[in-house]
Amino acid sequence: MAGITRRRALGLGGAAVAGTAGALAAAGSADAADGWQRLVVVTANIGRTDLGERERAIRDVRHAVTVDGRLTTPLVAWQEIGEGDADGQEPRWINRYFGTAYRNVFVNHDSAGRVPMSIPKAYDIVDRRVTFVHGGKAGVSPHRVITEAVLARADDPRTRFVFANTHYVAGAFNGRQDPYEAWRVDMWQQHFRKHRDEVLGYWRARGFPVIWAGDVNRSPMPLLLPNYEKRAFGSGIDQIGWVPGTNGTQLRLRWTKVVPMYVDGHDARVAVMQVRRV
Fold first, then answer.
1. Whether pLDDT at 29 is above 60
2. Which of 91, 137, 226, 270 registers the highest number of CB atoms within 10 A of its CB?
3. 152 exposed, middle or buried (CB, 10 Å; 0-12, 13-18, 19+)?
4. Which string of b and e fits 176-203 if b means at least 16 CB within 10 Å?
5. How many angstroms separate the Cα of 252 from the Cα of each of 76, 212, 229, 230?
6. Are 173 and 156 spatial neighbours (Cβ–Cβ below 8 Å)?
7. Cα separation of 222 and 236, whole Å?
8. Among 46, 82, 50, CA closest to 61
9. What backbone phi and psi angles, to 5 degrees, belong to 216?
10. Residue 175 burial (10 A CB sphere; 0-12, 13-18, 19+)
């Protein structure tokens, strides 16, 4: 596919802090004597421009972070899986590279297959759901949803949090005008409200901390919950954020990195976090 994509016009802005070594090889390894455990989170938009790089991109996400020479098992939020591709290869590659150590959820899902997740088996999936955001418009944008999974550490089931993944409509904030500009802005704002109220607000009201990741197609993006939310990256359209809960599970960020993917102006972004129950 030739030319400049809408995504590239948005720009990625704000390079993340580069890292060299990663998080832990298995989510169950202790990070410190005070109970913190390493938790690696990746957001990865596979993109549409260079389709020949897709398998390499998915493989590189699987190899995103190592520590002491051992490969880690991150939580991965995928975007644009199977979007515009007729070959059906991307779900197959995810299942190949994120295989026996993972559960790949929402892959090939009727309404949520564009934003699936890869969940390492160090976490049990207690619950999952799809929050519908808005319908699509032919020739402009597909429909949008938010995928969510309630996760519990397999070795300590009381350590629970929610992982959410999404992809906002493109073009509302790229500085260009088109005949669908008003629709794009309306849908972006509707997505923001549902993300804030029906995902972060919904799960926080039930005590759960929430980690969310995705392509927000706006940089900088306002905080969803300014009194609570933190972000791994100060700018850029590929984001990872989190909010605290009240169930005794705590989250904090240690460092970040970027994984080049050479697909469509998107690089995978990585947040090396820590989680514990108090």
1. no
2. 270
3. middle
4. eeeebeebbeebbeebbebbbeebbbbb
5. 17, 13, 11, 9
6. no
7. 12
8. 46
9. -95, -10
10. exposed
AA letter at 259: V
Structure-block tokens of residue 172 = 């509302």
Assess contact for 246 and 29: CB atoms under 8 A.
Answer: no
Among left, alpha and beta (phi > 0; psi -120 to 50; other), residue 11 is left
Task: Give per-residue pLDDT as tens, 35-53.
Answer: 999 999 999 999 878 889 9
Largest Cα–Cα distance in the chain? 58
pLDDT surpasses 60 at 17: no
Residue-wise pLDDT for 223-246, tens only, equals 999 999 999 999 999 999 999 999
Pairwise CA distance, residues 8 & 5, whole Å: 5
Q: Is 185 helix (H, G, I), strand (E, B) or coil?
A: helix
* Long-range interactions of 108-112: CB distance < 8 A, separation 24+: 108/82, 111/143, 111/145, 112/145, 112/147
Q: Measuring CA to CA, how many Å separate 176 from each of 90, 142, 179, 266?
A: 31, 20, 10, 20
Report pLDDT for 35.
92
pLDDT band at 32 (very low <50, low <70, confident <90, very high): low
pLDDT digit string, tens, across residues 70-83: 999 999 999 999 98
Give me the chain's average pLDDT, please. Answer: 89
* pLDDT at 150 exceeding the cut of 50: yes
Q: Which residue has the tokens 């993944």?
A: 165
